[in-house]
Write a structure and sequence with these properties.
Layout (H helix, E strand, L loop, with lengths): L4 E4 L11 H9 L2 E4 L2 H10 L6 E3 L5 H13 L4 E4 L12 H10 L3 E4 L4 H9 L6 E6 L4 H9 L7 E6 L4 H11 L4 E6 L7 E6 H10 L8 E5 L4 H18 L5 H12 L3 H12 L1
Parallel strand pairs: 1-4, 1-5, 2-3, 2-4, 6-7
Antiparallel strand pairs: 7-10, 8-9, 8-10
Helix pairs in contact: 3-4, 6-7, 7-8, 9-10, 9-11, 10-11
């Protein structure tokens, strides 16, 4: 293999989703850096891959990244994999890739399975434009604050959730969004794959009534706000921004509006500039 770091997507459930190219890379590199070597060993054994492995996870990534980049810079090849799906998407790897770019080390994507796109395309929720939030905070108040930032978001919003928190998350979602359309995708590509769509309240009640639907890994696909609701949100941002600009410079005011009301700092800054003008 060419000396580089290969970002290799692996199956999120069905092993048949591993691409021919991914298998070729895993067989051909000098080393595989895995989030959990025990988990990845089962995948490699299934495909008779004997490439040497090392661990790279959130607790050792910064330290290990330096030695791995040095090895690649000297001519070795490395494959990065997560436990499932595409590395770096709510998984370790950003530090490694960022440091590799800074060091001039080549980084090569090897695309494949990703729970986000799998859930979106089968959800029945508009997916032309979407925002990915990842995992929500564990504590109820922080979770509610995070969700409220999307109250006026017109784009579809995608969340990951774990089995022991999914019911709590749906309960908080029902308080914030109520009748907004939500698709719940569970155990994607696996034997008990389930995709259920309804209002947030309907999905919450459905999961609450069936404990089997509280097991597995979840992707929650929330439809965006209606145009009328989104416009209300924009009007509210303008109102809040106008008040903040009386006491704060545009940059500071924009950071507060983006944090409390959602959207990007750049979008908020543009509102601030238009008001100043």
């Amino acid at each position: 293999m060419e000396s580089a770091i290969y970002i290799v997507a692996t199956p999120i459930g069905n092993l048949g989703d591993l691409s021919f190219r991914a298998l070729e890379v895993l067989n051909g590199v000098d080393l595989i850096a895995a989030e959990d070597t025990r988990h990845t060993r089962r995948l490699l054994d299934h495909f008779d891959v004997s490439t040497k492995m090392c661990s790279l996870h959130e607790h050792n990534e910064r330290e290990r990244a330096e030695e791995l980049i040095k090895a690649v810079a000297e001519g070795s090849s490395l494959a990065l994999v997560s436990d499932a799906g595409t590395p770096l998407i709510s998984d370790p790897g950003h530090i490694l890739v960022s440091m590799a770019r800074d060091a001039g080390v080549k980084v090569v994507p090897v695309p494949g399975a990703c729970a986000i796109t799998a859930a979106l395309c089968a959800s029945g929720v508009p997916c032309g434009r979407f925002v990915f939030e990842g995992f929500l905070p564990a504590k109820a108040l922080a979770k509610k604050a995070c969700l409220e930032a999307y109250l006026y978001e017109s784009k579809t919003v995608v969340f990951y959730e774990s089995p022991h928190r999914v019911l709590d998350t749906l309960s908080v979602m029902s308080e914030v969004f109520a009748d907004r359309t939500l698709a719940l995708a569970r155990e994607l590509t696996k034997r008990f794959e389930t995709i259920y769509r309804g209002s947030v309240v309907e999905v919450r009640d459905w999961v609450e009534e069936d404990t089997n639907q509280q097991k597995g890994e979840f992707v929650l696909v929330l439809a965006g706000a209606s145009e009328e609701r989104a416009q209300v949100g924009d009007d509210e941002k303008v109102r809040v921004m106008r008040r903040l600009l009386k006491d704060l410079p545009p940059k500071a005011a924009s950071a507060i509006v983006a944090d409390l009301m959602g959207g990007s700092k750049k979008e908020a800054y543009n509102i601030a500039l238009s008001l100043r003008e």
